[in-house]
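Worked example 3 (structure in, sequence out).
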């Protein structure tokens, strides 16, 4: 593997973590969204999964987003008979987004993005120094 491959690997990791941050942001933005009619489901938390991609030509392994799915855990309910989405008993389904989980996911994605950025910068520095030696 050469140094230019490491830049591509780091870039794929940064792209994957940026997409993960977008999913987290969407979850946090919609955590208070409920249904609009009685018994309607509220916003369902989205999840993201990654997969390994191997380039056939170079044999370099990188990361891709495999799927953006949904968290199928149960919705909680809250008693609010005046809400338009309340059922006959006065309960409203609320989103299954947990802000603490989302904040932990956000921090992990941020750290992974930063690690990939540092790797990319180190690779560029090494490549630049190699070119200086060849002059």
């Amino acid at each position: 593997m050469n140094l230019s491959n490491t830049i591509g690997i780091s870039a794929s990791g940064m792209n994957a973590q940026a997409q993960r941050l977008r999913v987290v942001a969407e979850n946090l933005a919609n955590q208070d969204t409920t249904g609009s009619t009685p018994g309607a489901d509220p916003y369902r938390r989205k999840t993201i999964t990654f997969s390994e991609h191997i380039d056939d030509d170079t044999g370099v392994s990188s990361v891709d987003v495999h799927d953006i799915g949904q968290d199928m855990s149960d919705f909680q309910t809250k008693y609010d008979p005046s809400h338009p989405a309340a059922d006959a008993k006065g309960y409203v389904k609320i989103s299954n987004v947990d802000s603490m989980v989302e904040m932990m996911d956000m921090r992990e994605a941020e750290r992974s993005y930063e690690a990939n950025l540092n790797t990319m910068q180190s690779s560029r520095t090494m490549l630049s120094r190699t070119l200086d030696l060849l002059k």
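Notes: The chain has one domain: 3-134. The beta strands are 46-54, 61-70, 76-79, 91-94.
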